[in-house]
Design goal:
Blueprint lengths: L10 E2 L2 H9 L9 H11 L3 E7 L3 E8 L2 E8 L5 H5 L5 E4 L8 H8 L1
Parallel strand pairs: 4-5
Antiparallel strand pairs: 1-2, 2-3, 3-4
Helix pairs in contact: 1-2
Length: 110
Amino acid sequence: MIFKKNLHLAKRCRLEKINSMIENYPKPFKPAKYLIFIKTMLENGWKVKLYVANKVSKYVFIIKGDDVFKIRFSNHLPIESKEKENDCDYYVGISHCQTSTTEEIINKIL
């Protein structure tokens, strides 16, 4: 497996828990995009781990066989040096270089 920074800090996600979080998400808001992403990946056979940094940025790690991807979900800019070092495979939300939507990342991976 490829090394990904902070993977060891991430907690495993289970479909039942994610479904509950989506179902109980505060109204009138739509569930957070990272929850939809996690649900989609779990339903497609990926192992998923979540690391929440500073209560703001969500780092989702998805694992299947030897494939490991790290996706950052955030509405604020990452540290530019980390982004230039390819700290994450994909960025959803705001970034300095490459920004993707949740749907674009799902389509690239699946």
